Structure formats: C-alpha cells, structure tokens
Amino acid sequence: MNQKVAAFTPSNMPGRYEEATLVSLVRLPCPASAREIRLDIEAHIESEVSISVLYAALDRLEKKGFLTSTIEGPTGTKGERPKRLFSLTRKGKDLLRHTEQMSQRIWHGVPAQAVHA
After folding, report:
1. Chain segment 39-93, per-residue pLDDT in tens
2. How many domains does the chain have?
3. Does residue 84 form part of some domain?
4. Closest CA to 89 of 61, 52, 57, 111
C-alpha cells in the first residue's frame, strides 16, 4: 500500500521533538498532563526536557489539530491548581502512522552495519 496522504505536507509534519510528544501521548493513558508527558519523553530520549519548550510544542500541535487539551479543576487539595490535560486526536494518530511509514521508507535498504559500525 503505497498511498500518499495529501493532508500531511512538509509544513505540518512534526519535528523530532513534536513527534516524541505525540508518541508519548500514545504510550500514556490519556488525557495526560504536561508533567506526565515530560517525564515520559525524558525517560525515552534520556535527556532533560524544558517545560517551556514542551508547552510550545503542545500549543503548536493543538493549533494544527493533532491533539486537544482540556482544563481539569483542582480536586480540593490545598494549593492545587487546575491542570491542562492533553489527548491525541484521530488526525494526530494518522500523522504518527504516516510519519512512521515515511521513516521506514527512508531507512529501507540501509544495512544496519552502515550506521552501527
């Protein structure tokens, strides 16, 4: 099945950081908080993630329709603030599927020893 997906153009394809954010939303039970997403990404890329950079990526992805966010009010615990929770949309899942397929096509035919030597 070698179909082109017209909805995904170079201008709306995710960068690696945005891709990691979307993949994190697949791994985590949704909706997920920015803190949960941040911890998941850090565990997989083995590097610290700036919360301001993460929120910028989340905002961009939401504007493009790849995820949605809702505000959950405080549970009554003293000092607790409302949380913004994120969920992947159908469009976001389609984008991840397309991105994965594209990566497989790009890497097809490259011998493992070429990059691991």
Report:
1. 999 999 888 999 999 999 999 999 999 999 999 877 667 777 888 999 999 999 9
2. 1
3. yes
4. 61
